[in-house]
From TrEMBL:
Protein name per Swiss-Prot or TrEMBL: Lipoprotein
Residues spanning the signal sequence: 1-28
Superkingdom per UniProt: Bacteria
Biological source species: Faecalicoccus pleomorphus
Keywords: Signal
Amino acid sequence: MAKLKVFILGACSCIVLGLLCCAFVSFSHQDTDFESNQWYQSVHTDENGDLFLRIQFGDIIITQLG
């Protein structure tokens, strides 16, 4: 039961983080192109099926394992 709570909390935090990032990009007048080194987001799974969310904004990099 504790693992389920942790999983649900992690999933909810990923959703909230994604919504906040989308809202920021929507209301931001900055370029969202990775080549300009301003904004980059990637979501992928590794060979074990674990989900990774990586967000880079300038020099700030946030990586979350879901």
